[in-house]
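Researcher: For the annotation table, I need structure tokens for U-box domain-containing protein. Please keep the output clean. Sequence:
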Amino acid sequence: MTEIEIPQFYACPISLQIMKDPVTTVTGITYDRESIEYWLLKAKDCTCPITKQPLPRNAEFLTPNHTLRRLIQAWCSANEANGVDQIPTPKSPLSNANVEKLVKDLEVSPRFQSAMEKLHNLAVENERNRRCMASAGVAEAMVHVITKSFTQGKTTSCVEEALRILRLLWSSANVVDNNHMKRLVCQNFDFLNSLTWVLQLQTKNNLKVINEALPILKLTIEAKDSTPLGNLGFEFFRVVVNVMKNRELSQQAVKSALHVLIETCPLGRNRTKIVEAGAVEELVELALENPEKNLTELVFILLAHLCSCADGRDQFLQHAAGIAVVSKRILRVSPTTDDRALHIFSLISKFSASNEVVQEMLRVGAVSKLCMVLQADCASHLKEKAREIEIPQFYACPISLQIMKDPVTTVTGITYDRESIEYWLLKAKDCTCPITKQPLPRNAEFLTPNHTLRRLIQAWCSANEANGVDQIPTPKSPLSNANVEKLVKDLEVSPRFQSAMEKLHNLAVENERNRRCMASAGVAEAMVHVITKSFTQGKTTSCVEEALRILRLLWSSANVVDNNHMKRLVCQNFDFLNSLTWVLQLQTKNNLKVINEALPILKLTIEAKDSTPLGNLGFEFFRVVVNVMKNRELSQQAVKSALHVLIETCPLGRNRTKIVEAGAVEELVELALENPEKNLTELVFILLAHLCSCADGRDQFLQHAAGIAVVSKRILRVSPTTDDRALHIFSLISKFSASNEVVQEMLRVGAVSKLCMVLQADCASHLKEKARGVLRLHSKTWNNSPCIQVYLLTRFRR
């Protein structure tokens, strides 16, 4: 590929892109027009980015640099064959005179449509145009067009165009002075009525018109004084609520409608009018669709407003899903949603708490959610609101606050649900009763089933079945060691083997209590034996997959198996690692399922093994693991496990060289190109950094056409860990493998630009130091690049 040497100073110091419309400031520095105008608009201190001298904010003081623009265009033309795009001659900036002429054309019927189209195209083009249009009176002209159409009752396409232009002018950052716009809509009394009329139009592009009108209506309501808003008629609210029923509206339009109702709700008798317009039912329906966070917050804010009046609460309680949907969103969306949801429940509990309502709150889990708020790490005022709501006394476990399905009594005399207290005994550092704080034996055998209480709870559930209370089945007896040991012995008898495996799998899947019992009864040892026996006999049977699944459930489940016991188990069994390698090569009907089960076990085995045997692993082991990773149908967990295996073994002995020889580098680059999720990307880059620390690894990396490009692309896009490893890779390449082709490739694919961006970004100082080190190594080569000239000229020139 032909190397392109980019001349100095053809790039804008702000955007680091080749300048399309170079302009020179009063400080003598040249920038791209769009970049410097945006800088002047946004900067708090209006200074030159390079010299730090003060600059006038007005864009009229920017002088077009035609000479430099022609030089850039000539260079682009000369390099067109090398893939450099042509840069067209930029248009002259829009002037007030041009805009005022178009505004006058709106008064002449034959020119009206053409003028509207031109104004719309100018507004869409860029922010500079919108600022010019705002100062030339286009906003006033668009308001006039809309109100004129309303007073004449004419439904024309110009209304949609006028709304779109007005929204672009009003919504665009810093384009229109808010006070000017406020005066404009406040002085025009027909404008609000015009927007209401627009929302009712039955036109071909009705949906587009409404999507444009609602954001304008929101801004108008925010600009209006409270007095006229308190006198809005019922028809206004009916129209807004009806519009919200259209599920094809854009998210922005729905949010705008909600903002309109929230702003107007507290004024005058508006709350009652909004309720009469059917807003409560519509809000519940909207919440049922599980919208995104900001929209959910707006729904709950408005719903809390409307439930503060009796009619609003009645409408809310008449909806079958009202209480359920509010309960479901607590602790799931945001503190704002939690606050408004608890406020709704507080209002209902104080003023509308009939027996049916209280039973409904219990049935749909609202009571449980309120109890969870008291336990959760949330604001104290939320917990206070939850406490204010009167919770009936029922058969609830003191730990989970749910109705007990299998009540058991501890030696302290307190009754809990079996699952909750067993988990408490497993996890608690100090094994004490949660209520009395007296010591408890950790063994679950000291828990006595409370059959009397369980029958009372079942009877209560049956009596309240009509109110939607679910029946509680009689719990199974807990699994005993004797039962499990019998199944383990059955594994030694061929006719019973398959049945015993299925039963063990079903027990392991059922719950964590079973897995703890199975672990203590020696099931893990039995599964290891099944796998190694299949390996030594060379038999590929379905039992291998089942044994792997059971072993993974026992080993992966929290606190089920003592890690030291499991470590001893796999360390003493020398054939187990070879067995897993053999499993990964099996060509069976369920090959993919077997590999998905085997890789997590292999990861746990490698983590348990001592470093000495791991340093002596053969090349075949790594070849198998790398080959398995090439299967793109593997589960994410399996791929992560394979990467963990390679990362754990890489630093030991000559493993790094063996992994490289197995083709891992190419596979890692291919994996990174698929843009995997964050944790997987981090693992890829950690392993890639390990492998690039040897010469063969760097050679393989540089031989891949996308190697440098993909590493560059992920910097500042994934996580600090990925950034650190990516910069480490570039540091190794720059120090030990920096041929002229490599250095030019880093420039071509944007790696140099990314290193410069690291210096500007808000990231850790050690990352910036790594980036600075790479830039200094090849500053002479990259000095002519427009992507890096600012940095080399100001920081790295030696």
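Researcher: And a one-line annotation?
Model: Strands lie at 22-24, 30-32, 63-64, 407-409, 415-417, 448-449.
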